[in-house]
């Protein structure tokens, strides 16, 4: 059998039974030298003193014992989603009701019995005493990936470190007085126990304790899971035993009657509290010591008072498979008094805890810590400094992953999920570094590109099959679980529930069968990937919101102060007292405490104490430290401890004896381990006369209200991120019927230690990115970073911050439970998922789909993935008056109604004195409720109007409760595939539409590869001529639109490729834009937008000529951007039978999520504006080019220029420009089932994702040097950037023209004969002598030449540089007007000639007919491709 998170168990050879007769101990052998290679690892010990008097204060609680209940693994009414119960405090006070120390089954005997006598009868004296726990170091808690792969998806399995399974416990009693004052049995100085932590026991074995008294199962055993036992037997399986470490112990000799769980790992218990919560690990990692001992006659005596110290030594019983490791720890001077409560640290904490409620809640730990700091008094504004630094980082662009405007790109608040693989050529990956410098990747051949595309699509299809298979197996597991957990006469027998279960089973069986068939039919063969250039890389990850993080401060910690650091490790031979330096310490100490000097002080500590008595110790030393008087007895008994000498490995004996000397040395508080080259024991090994306290976990309850989505909107936060918040003026408290949207959920949160240290590490990265002086005096000085970091570290360390996630919250919204639960298993072998050799074997026919069919286990056993949660079914309560519990998207508000801090011994404190009292946590900005304007300043907009200036409620904006990813890419469409880029021609035969399932054709948009140029045009602002130059994708000028004198004036074009004073382009989008630019209002608006954007967006230096920017703005690229919201699996469904009996509510497919493109507040965001994709009407043909449809480019949505800035006074803003907020971009979550017959091959699957139904496309104007940011609030911020090589390649080809003149030249221009063809610039010898413009690039002069009956032509001239102040000579002079032509020097002129000599001929005849109305004229054309003059006639308008 198997449970959630359980590791595989193996039988182990066992030792001799406990009850064998003791053998005579052989004579001790000579002392052996310590074996080399023994490693000592230190552990922290804590002791909890339990008597009835610690229950007297009602400000805190002692929890009743709360052990795992493995009967939860049984079928029917016993079934439970979590075998680890929550703590119940309803009967915790007073102690007479608390089962921890009270036997509530004892009834009053009758009249005459006093309450005191009844209390005495009920008191469980066998449970009083000291509870000792040792905290396992990190080295026994870690895991590593195995070399082999598991059977599910190739994920590396994790192998967890084993923990020591033998623990020798020494009890050293300094002073003691027995309960029976007449007892003459003195307490022994040394009592030793041996803990067999991995010993398996069953109910039949649980009869007597080590003193022969009836065994208390709850304090002497730990419920555990062992796969050798059936599910029905697990409730009777326990782990751990405490034995007397004397001659009665059987040692390590095997015994077939005893079973051991080997190896013992923390994961093997399937209980996250197993290692650290003392209730759950009795006689495994803790013991109960009732301070009893037996005299020589076997009489048991118990101490009424005592001062006792403990030492623990753990090792592996089978060291062949482990290093020689001894895990050790010690604790000094624990005070026991059965009639008096010790000082209780929890009581010191609870007062301040309730007064200040030092609890913070944030999106993640950093958010929560910032919120906590904001609430703390002090002279320094840490939150203000951090916010300022993040803002500066965002504005300087130095942030990278810490950019304030891409804070969500940190993935803070999100959990990444594997997104699959994609295939690329290694050459492209190797050239990535050079691409960053602008190098163009070497483009593969068309055949290679087609092969790569097909392989990549096949991989995407296979990954989708894998994800869908895991989802269907999860669905099948949920039905399997609900069937096991059915209650007789429960609602699961309702016909609606039965019908839904049958449908889901049928769907799961058919889907899994189809996936198995498709995986074989579309397998990626070895031959498909044998090309050595191919390399598999990671595809974009899916994400889901993590649950909010809670931070608790000022309450101490259950962990050692250095728990988050690597474990302290020491070699045996290098222990401090084993060195020459240490031996000198010992000698000096012994000479200090002994009355008279003797020869034994030079022979070591053990020899000295074995040859002395308490009377040899100085009286003042004994008065100061009575423990010294017992050391002679201790070392004598240690010398004669036969099990240590003969029944454990020799290296264990040597190590224990060496560590005992260190323990004894530390009993004198004046002794210090002062050598810097040795690591001493823990400095806090003294109990300190105080009951320890340190929170281990929180058990919480949240009252949640689901706020309808009409109250929410996506809003920009001050730092540029996006978050869903309530709409302004929502005033939720004014609405009734919130009970319909209410539900209560609960969970348990483990608290991570030293949250402050991890935060300081992260904030240190932020500090490193802020330049000195950027925030005034706060950042002045060269060492300001170190000083601020040290100050912050000290501040946080003093706050004792603990952090943990509300991990089960989102699962409750999916009607799923987390916890230790049963998983599918093979009843013949008890093998759980992934432990056997089962393979997927779907039933042959769908009608065999039955939860009791033999094929179910075949489908569930191959892997445990997806089995970590269980369905609600009918067992989880659902309020019949409320709506459905299932919420595909979370958007609501909640408050804590219970918040209990629990330490490792079951002490509990709460920030509220009563259950009805409110808890007011400090909230991070994303979780804080907005202001309720209707109620006035200081009131939060929450479902209940709370008191002023505070709120119990936190809010959760839109969160999709399953894995998803926002796909953003540059896309191309088959309409323009021929003109977009030569590298897209292998896509030219792809279909343009996918049919008309919903009444309209679905156009395909394909994401470009890294070898393609997605740019369909370029725009450049010409400041000198007040115009906008338009270039085609290859950087060739199509024309320049000049601004008229007024906003209503006529637009003039300065072009060389035109028809009737209008430019033309083969690309339909660019052609449409050229038409729009002939509208003067649109031209003015676009000029304003481009100009402001050029000034606002930070310029990144590039190959673009810096001097040229004085004449023109930076080039802006025209691209198409595709956006889609992809679900990793099919939409989740409710797993509650109660929900099926309630009215339907919104499903995930009913939601549309807004996406914010660009961010004006971010100086490094490159978006200027975007056009919405026009929708195709019923009468428009499916083959009509997209941008010729009605509504194409009707409006540019931009934050720049219009309507805020108007270059001229206009009566009204132009309706072709609007704020993006006036028409937001929405995407719908989309899932395409690869097993659906409509999409069941890679090509169909790809085309479905490329369709307009799945992908939202906009045409955008972007700064090519900066990324475009996409914020959705539901997923991490993403960016999209043009590869540098595309920008550089286009700039090298661009030929920019600037109108020049009038210029005065000496003489006339050299002329060719009339009608003679102009030679290319590289071949002409004609020159124009004018002052140089710049020394960079290639400059030339284009002179307009008018010839009768011919189109005006432009003669190219080389520029001849002359002095700027050259004197005018005698005439005649020529006044010259023409055009400067500029191109980067790196481009060869012959390879990219301008359009000045090209004819007006075009592939699209309709473009040649776009003449101005009313004009009828013959135009003769010339060009190198025209052998004779041609005549075109333009019809009348």
Task: Report what the structure shows.
With 1437 residues, the chain is α+β, with helices and mostly antiparallel strands. Strands 39, 40, 41, 42, 43, 44, 47, 49, 50, 51, 53 and 54 form a twelve-stranded mixed beta sheet that branches. Helix 8 packs antiparallel against helix 9 and helix 8 crosses helix 24 (1242-1250). The longest helix has 39 residues, at 446-484. The chain starts with a strand and ends with a strand.
Number of extended strands: 63
- What does the average pLDDT come to? 79
The secondary structure category is alpha+beta
Radius of gyration: 40 Å
Helix content: 10-25%
Uncertain regions spanning at least 5 consecutive residues:
5-34, 148-156, 395-410, 431-438, 838-848, 979-1001, 1057-1062, 1204-1212, 1385-1437
**Shape field:** elongated
Strand content: 15-25%
Largest sheet: 12 strands, mixed
Q: Please give the count of helices.
A: 26
Terminal-residue CA separation: 85 Å
What descriptors fit this protein?
single chain; 11-stranded mixed beta sheet; disordered C terminus; 12-stranded mixed beta sheet; 1437 residues; 26 helices
């Amino acid at each position: 059998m198997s449970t959630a998170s359980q590791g595989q168990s193996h039988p182990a050879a066992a030792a001799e039974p406990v009850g064998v007769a003791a053998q005579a101990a052989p004579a001790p052998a000579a002392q052996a030298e310590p074996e080399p290679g023994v490693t000592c690892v230190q552990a922290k010990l804590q002791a909890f003193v339990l008597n009835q008097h610690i229950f007297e204060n009602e400000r805190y609680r002692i929890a009743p014992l709360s052990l795992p209940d493995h009967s939860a693994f049984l079928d029917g009414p016993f079934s439970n989603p979590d075998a680890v119960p929550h703590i119940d405090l309803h009967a915790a006070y007073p102690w007479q009701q608390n089962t921890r120390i009270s036997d509530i089954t004892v009834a009053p005997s009758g009249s005459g019995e006093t309450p005191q006598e009844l209390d005495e009868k009920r008191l469980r004296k066998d449970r009083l005493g000291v509870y000792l726990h040792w905290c396992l170091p990190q080295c026994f808690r870690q895991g590593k990936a195995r070399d082999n792969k598991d059977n599910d998806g190739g994920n590396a399995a994790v192998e967890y470190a084993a923990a020591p399974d033998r623990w020798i416990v020494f009890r050293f009693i300094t002073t003691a007085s027995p309960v029976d004052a007449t007892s003459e049995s003195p307490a022994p100085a040394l009592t030793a126990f041996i803990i067999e932590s991995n010993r398996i026991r069953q109910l039949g074995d649980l009869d007597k304790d080590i003193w022969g008294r009836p065994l208390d199962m709850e304090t002497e055993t730990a419920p555990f899971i062992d796969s050798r036992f059936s599910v029905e037997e697990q409730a009777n399986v326990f782990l751990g035993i405490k034995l007397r470490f004397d001659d009665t112990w059987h040692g390590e000799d095997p015994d077939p009657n005893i079973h051991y769980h080997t190896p013992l790992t923390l994961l093997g218990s399937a209980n996250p509290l197993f290692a650290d919560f003392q209730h759950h690990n009795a006689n495994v990692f803790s013991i109960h010591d009732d301070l009893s001992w037996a005299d020589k006659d076997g009489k048991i005596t118990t101490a009424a008072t005592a001062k006792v110290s403990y030492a623990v030594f753990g090792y592996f019983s089978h060291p062949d498979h482990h290093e020689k490791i001894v895990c050790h720890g010690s604790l000094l001077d624990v005070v026991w008094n059965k009639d008096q409560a010790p000082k209780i640290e929890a009581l010191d904490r609870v007062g301040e805890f309730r007064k200040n409620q030092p609890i913070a809640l944030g999106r993640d730990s950093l958010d929560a810590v910032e919120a906590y700091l904001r609430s703390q008094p002090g002279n320094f504004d840490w939150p203000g400094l951090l916010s300022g630094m993040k803002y500066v980082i965002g504005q300087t662009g130095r942030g990278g992953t810490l950019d304030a405007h891409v804070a969500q790109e940190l993935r803070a608040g999100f959990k990444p999920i594997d997104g699959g693989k994609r295939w690329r050529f290694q050459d492209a990956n190797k050239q990535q570094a050079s691409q960053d410098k602008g190098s163009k990747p070497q483009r593969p051949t068309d055949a290679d590109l087609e092969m790569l595309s097909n392989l990549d699509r096949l991989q995407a299809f296979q990954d989708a099959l894998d994800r869908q298979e895991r989802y269907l197996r999860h669905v099948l597991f949920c039905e399997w679980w609900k069937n096991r957990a059915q209650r007789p006469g429960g609602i699961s027998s309702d016909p609606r529930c039965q019908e839904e279960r049958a449908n889901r089973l049928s769907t799961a069986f058919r889907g899994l069968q189809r996936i198995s068939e498709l995986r074989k039919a579309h397998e990626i063969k070895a031959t498909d990937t044998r090309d050595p250039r191919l390399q598999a890389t990671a595809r974009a990850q899916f994400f889901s919101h993590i649950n909010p993080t809670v931070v608790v401060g000022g309450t101490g910690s259950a962990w050692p102060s250095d728990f988050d650091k690597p474990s302290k490790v020491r070699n045996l031979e290098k222990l401090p007292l084993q060195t020459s330096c240490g031996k000198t310490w010992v000698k000096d100490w012994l000479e200090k405490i002994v009355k008279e000097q003797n020869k034994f002080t030079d022979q070591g500590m053990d020899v000295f104490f074995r040859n002395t008595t308490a009377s040899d110790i100085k009286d003042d030393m004994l008065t100061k430290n009575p423990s010294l008087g017992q050391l002679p007895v201790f070392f004598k008994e240690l010398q004669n401890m036969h099990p240590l000498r003969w029944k454990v490995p020799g290296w264990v004996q040597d190590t224990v004896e060496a560590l005992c000397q260190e323990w004894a040395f530390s009993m004198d508080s004046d002794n210090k381990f002062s050598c810097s080259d040795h690591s001493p024991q823990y400095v806090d090994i003294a109990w300190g006369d105080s009951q320890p306290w340190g929170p281990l976990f929180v058990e919480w309850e949240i009252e949640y209200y689901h706020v309808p989505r009409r109250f929410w909107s996506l809003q920009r936060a001050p730092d540029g991120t996006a978050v869903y918040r309530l709409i302004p003026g929502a005033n939720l408290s004014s609405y009734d019927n919130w009970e319909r949207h209410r539900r209560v959920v609960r969970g348990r949160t483990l608290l991570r230690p030293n949250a402050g240290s991890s935060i300081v590490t992260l904030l240190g990265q932020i500090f490193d990115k802020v330049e000195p002086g950027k925030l005034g005096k706060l950042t002045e000085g060269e060492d300001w970073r170190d000083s601020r970091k040290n100050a912050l570290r000290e501040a946080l360390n003093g706050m004792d911050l603990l952090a943990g996630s509300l991990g089960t919250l989102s699962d409750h919204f999916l009607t799923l439970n987390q916890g230790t639960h049963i998983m599918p298993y093979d009843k013949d072998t008890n093998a759980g998922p992934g432990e056997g050799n089962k393979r997927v074997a779907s039933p042959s026919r769908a009608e065999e789909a039955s939860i009791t069919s033999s094929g179910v286990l075949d489908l569930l056993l191959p892997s445990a993935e997806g089995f970590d949660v269980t369905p609600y079914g009918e067992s989880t309560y659902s309020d019949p008056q409320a709506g459905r519990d299932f919420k595909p998207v979370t958007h609501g508000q909640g408050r804590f109604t219970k918040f209990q801090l629990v330490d490792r011994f079951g002490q509990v404190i709460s920030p509220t004195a009563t259950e009805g009292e409110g808890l007011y946590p400090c909230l991070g900005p994303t979780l804080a409720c907005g202001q309720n304007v209707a109620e006035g300043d200081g009131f939060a907009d929450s479902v209940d109007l709370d008191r002023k200036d505070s709120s119990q409620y936190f809010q959760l904006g839109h969160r999709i409760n399953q894995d998803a990813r926002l796909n953003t890419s540059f896309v191309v469409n088959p309409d323009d595939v021929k003109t977009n880029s030569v590298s897209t021609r292998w896509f030219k035969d792809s279909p343009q539409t996918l049919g008309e399932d919903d009444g309209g054709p679905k156009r395909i948009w394909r994401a470009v590869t890294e070898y393609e140029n997605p740019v369909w045009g370029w725009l450049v602002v010409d400041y000198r001529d007040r115009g906008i130059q338009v270039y085609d994708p290859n950087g060739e000028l199509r024309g320049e639109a000049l601004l008229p004198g007024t906003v209503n004036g006529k637009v003039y074009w300065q072009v060389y490729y035109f028809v009737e004073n209008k430019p033309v382009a083969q690309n339909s989008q660019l052609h449409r834009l050229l038409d729009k630019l002939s509208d003067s209002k649109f031209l003015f608006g676009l000029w304003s937008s481009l100009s402001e954007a050029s000034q606002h967006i930070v310029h990144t230096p590039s190959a673009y000529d810096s001097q040229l920017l004085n004449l023109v703005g930076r080039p802006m690229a025209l691209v198409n951007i595709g956006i889609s919201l992809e679900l990793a699996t099919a939409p989740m469904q409710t797993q509650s039978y109660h929900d099926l009996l309630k009215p339907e509510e919104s499903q995930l497919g009913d939601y549309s999520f807004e996406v914010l493109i660009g961010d004006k507040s971010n100086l490094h965001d490159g978006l200027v504006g975007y056009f919405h994709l026009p929708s195709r009407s019923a009468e428009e043909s499916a083959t009509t080019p997209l941008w010729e449809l009605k509504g194409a480019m009707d409006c540019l949505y931009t934050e720049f220029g219009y309507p805020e800035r108007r270059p001229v006074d206009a009566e009204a803003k132009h309706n072709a420009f609007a704020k993006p907020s006036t028409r937001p971009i929405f995407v719908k979550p989309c899932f395409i089932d690869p097993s659906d017959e409509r999409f069941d091959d890679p090509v169909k699957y790809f085309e479905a994702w490329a369709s307009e139904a799945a992908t939202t496309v906009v045409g955008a104007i972007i700064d090519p040097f900066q990324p475009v940011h996409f914020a959705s609030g539901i997923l991490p911020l993403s960016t999209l950037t043009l590869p540098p090589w595309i920008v550089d390649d286009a700039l090298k080809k661009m030929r920019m023209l600037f109108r020049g003149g009038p210029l005065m030249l000496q003489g006339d221009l050299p002329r060719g004969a009339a009608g003679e063809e102009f030679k290319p610039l590289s071949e002409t010898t004609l020159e124009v002598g004018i002052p140089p413009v710049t020394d960079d690039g290639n400059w030339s002069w284009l002179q307009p030449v008018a010839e009768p009956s011919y189109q005006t032509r432009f003669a190219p001239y080389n520029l001849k540089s002359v002095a700027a102040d050259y004197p005018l000579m005698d005439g005649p002079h020529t006044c010259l007007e023409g055009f400067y032509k500029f191109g980067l020097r790196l481009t060869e002129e012959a390879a990219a000639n301008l359009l000045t000599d090209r004819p007006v001929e075009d592939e699209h005849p309709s473009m040649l007919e776009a003449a101005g109305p009313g004009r009828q004229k013959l135009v003769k054309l010339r060009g190198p491709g025209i052998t004779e003059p041609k005549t075109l006639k333009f019809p009348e308008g």
